[in-house]
Amino acid sequence: MREEPTAMRYVLITANRNYSSWSLRPWLLMKALDIPFAERLEPFAAADNHAAFRAFSPTGQVPVLIDGDRTIWDSLGITLYLAERHDGVWPADAEARAWAYAATCEMHGSFGALRSDCTMNVGVRVTPRPASPALQRQIARLAELWAEGLARFGGPWIAGDAFTAVDAFYAPVAFRVRTYGLDVGTAGQAWVDHILAHPAMREWERMALAETWREAEHEAELAAAGSITADYRT
Predict the structure, then answer these.
(1) In angstroms, rounded to a whole number, what is the distance separating the alpha carbons of residues 59 and 62?
(2) Which of 130, 76, 89, 107 is nearest to 2 (CA)?
(3) What is the CA radius of gyration of the chain?
(4) Quick one: which of 12, 18, 78 has its CA closest to 43?
(5) Which one in 41, 69, 73, 155 has a CA-CA gap of 20 to 30 Å to 94?
(6) Residues contacting 86, CB < 8 A, separation 6+
(7) What is the DSSP letter of 157?
């Protein structure tokens, strides 16, 4: 039996909008599906925030969802928890839903070169260094995956005509595509443009640009990724 959620009982703990790709996933999902929640921001204050974040997160990482006396951690764990309580988290069509499960898990557990070589930074534009073979393969896989989902399920979202969790999980990559000018093909770029125009994504971007935090390790990763050509942050 589905447990009925109480309005505004959720508290979602996230980190810096500019850096935290993992935080974006459940935040965007809940915003897009109109699931009410209170926000709590715990910024990255140092290169290692594990000890400080352990005060509210079993793993010392974000995001974390607080639901009464329950603590749910990890973006996928939060998504699965919400799916048991709210409609629309996954596609209604069984074939699209099965595909979305697999594509979401692939994003959650793969694309290591993309994460390390194209660090999340919403507010800048970068001319990247030459891509490693691993990064080239992963960019090609993104283009293939997005084109497949859009063709099979009709778009404009990855798994059909409604925004679902699979879009939320790839949303941080849309920012990376724009930041680094990655080529994800015509179909992939159409989805990137579509999700970047979503009101919740635009809200996240506005908050990211307004942040004044700069964390040295994240900035060093950005410098290693290529040459900054524009910086729109406050």
Answers:
(1) 8
(2) 89
(3) 17
(4) 18
(5) 73
(6) 5, 33, 35
(7) B
Tell me the one-letter amino acid at 40: R
Residue 228, strand partner residues: 126
Interatomic CA distance for residues 163 and 89, integer angstroms? 8
Contact 184, 192 (CB under 8 A): yes
Measure the CA–CA gap between 30 and 73, rounded to whole angstroms.
Answer: 15
Determine the distance from the C-alpha atom of residue 77 to the mean position of all C-alpha atoms in its chain, rounded to a whole number. 14
Among residues 45, 110, 48, 39, the alpha carbon closest in space to that of 76 is found at: 110
Sheet bearing 10-14, strands edge to edge: 38-41, 10-14, 64-67, 70-73
224: left (phi over 0), alpha (psi -120 to 50) or beta: alpha
Contact 168, 28 (CB under 8 A): yes
CA-CA distance, 164 to 155, in Å (whole number)? 12
What's the rounded mean pLDDT across residues 182-199? Answer: 98
What pLDDT score was predicted for residue 1? 46
Provide, for the chain, the percentages of residues in helix, strand and coil under a 3-state DSSP scheme, each rounded to the nearest 5: 50, 15, 35
Sign of CA dihedral 27, 127, 131, 196: positive
3-state class of 151 per DSSP? helix
The pLDDT value given to residue 2: 61
Of 62, 19, 49, 27, give the one whose Cα is nearest residue 233: 19
| Burial profile 174-198: b = 16 or more Cβ within 10 angstroms, e = fewer | bbbbbbbebebeebbbbbbebbeeb
